[in-house]
Write a structure and sequence with these properties.
The protein has about 375 residues and is of the alpha/beta class. It has two domains: about 120 residues, Beta-Lactamase (2-Layer Sandwich), CATH 3.30.450; about 210 residues, P-loop containing nucleotide triphosphate hydrolases (Rossmann fold, 3-Layer(aba) Sandwich). The protein is built from 14 helices and 15 strands. Helix 9 packs antiparallel against helix 10 and helix 13 packs antiparallel against helix 14. The longest helix has 15 residues.
Amino acid sequence: MATGSAPTPVSHDRSSGSVTLDTNALLSAMLGAHDQVSDLIFSPGRFPTVEIHGELSRVEALTSQPLTPDDTRRIAADLIGGNKQAINILRDQGSCDLSYGLPGLARFRVNVFIQRGSCAVVMRVIPTAVPNLATLGLPAHLEEAARFRDGIVLATGPRNSGKSSTLAALVDRINQERVCHILTIEDPIEFLHNHKRATIHQRELHSDTPSIVLALQAAQRQAPNVILVSDLRDHQTMEMILEAAETGHLVFSALNTPDAAKTLERILSLFAGSEQATTRKRLAKTLRLVVSQRLMPRQGGGGRIVAAEVLRINAQVQQCLEDNDFSSSRLLDVMKGGAREGMQHFDGEIEKLVRQGTISPETAILHSTDPEGLRQRLAQPV
């Protein structure tokens, strides 16, 4: 928290009677509202708001009245600064993404957008330290993904499920263990990685490269061993990721899909029907691991906990792809039978959390893949 000598969020111009918000001081004070702030929200007509463990809370003590459209416009302008590309994207598309840092305190992933003709801002807090799988609550055996020499590793889940943190942890593990070249293409850069055993370069969309596709094309001349693409968005990006994996690169990326089955469906939906048979064969050869995540509130408060579904691509999964049958039920059978290989499925992990008293049955049902099936199992004694 800021000391008494630090700037205050609000200053008053006595000559004009106007009120000016000091953006950095405001951000610092909002972070000081709680030690688990995950998001900061600025909206006209509302007090500054923070998200803590998935719940929104207004921070009314920082300003005497709700934010005005001029307030949020000034905050957005301070965050964007001289980033002309972000300004042009905001003007042309109505929203823009960027990163922002408070030196020595925090970094943020920022989205500025236009609503009702005025600016609003949402800022995701990025931890200053790169996490590891243990602190994220993920199974330790996922570290094997950092030891693959080639192929594709995907982290999936809804917004705010921790995908970026998982990928950062795996990249950091490679950075610690291998002498290699790591290249990341991010929108925007979140975790800052320092060179360790590996040499690592991080490129940010719009400031370092105009597009993910152009960055991937340039990567062919930059000799990376490991490539991270923060979002897998379209056919062209997926095609280039497949090509990179086929030519000996290890590629990490993320998808906003709820589970392993939907992930495979989503990838194939990016390709025309005439391409899908070939794409399934290519995926069978290059896909290595899919980890899907869901964050759930702990029972009795105390933050959130992750449940993870892990699909490792083995001969059975390859056969599912070749047969064009990767339904939830078939993949579920594969994951249940693949426990010795480190596979696990959502409802099995969620049930364990209920039995341990970590989450409530109501929370479990809400986040489960098969609510009725889980309800029946929970009704049975252990």
